[in-house]
Specification:
Largest sheet: 7 strands, antiparallel
Distance between the termini: 38 Å
Number of helices: 4
Shape: globular
Structural class: alpha+beta
Order of helices and strands: HHHEEEHEEEE
Helix content: 10-25%
Number of domains: 1
């Protein structure tokens, strides 16, 4: 990770740690849309992955071939402080899934999309988000906009490039907290 990426990650944490994740440099933003079939297949896979957030952390890690470490020294973290679960390919699209390293049984998942553009309208038609949830602070080098979809037992937040083609960059899924 270069210094610019580290600064983007740190600035994202200082804005709202609940939804922070480093943004790719603008040169990494896909501009060409993937085929409609690939976009729809990737969206179905993203929906399925998002629903996995309701599983216990140990079950979730095992489903992706990971071992749950009992201490932070036993768990490998990526540069964003998350645990990488898997990377899948759908057509030319790549979906990288990570989980937060928290100690509670509940997890949150982030799925990053790369390799092509999933167009905003196609993603919004698929997930039918109910409201705008988040927007990058003014002057952000990689402005994102988030739309929230509420499912029966989890929330899904879709993050899009705020300008340009409006491609889907990432999906965050959070289980409803049990009381």
């Amino acid at each position: 990770m270069n210094d610019v990426m580290k600064l983007l990650f740190i600035s994202a944490l200082s804005v709202d740690p609940g939804i922070a994740f480093a943004s790719p440099p603008s040169s990494a933003i896909p501009t060409e849309p993937a085929s409609r079939a690939d976009q729809l297949s990737a969206l179905m896979r993203l929906r399925m992955l998002a629903s996995e957030v309701t599983h216990e952390r140990s079950t979730l890690l095992a489903a992706h071939g990971q071992r749950a470490g009992t201490t932070s020294a036993e768990t490998e973290f990526n540069l964003e402080g998350r645990v990488d679960l898997s990377t899948e390919t759908v057509g030319r699209l790549s979906i990288a899934t990570s989980v937060d390293p928290g100690l509670t049984s509940n997890a949150d998942l982030v799925m990053r999309v790369s390799g092509g553009c999933i167009e905003r309208q196609i993603a919004k038609d698929h997930f039918a988000p109910t409201k705008m949830y988040w927007a990058s602070p003014a002057g952000s080098p990689q402005p994102l906009i988030g739309f929230k979809h509420v499912a029966a037992d989890h929330d899904v937040i879709l993050f899009f490039d705020a300008f340009g083609r409006g491609c889907l960059n990432a999906v965050r899924s959070e289980a409803h907290r049990r009381k």
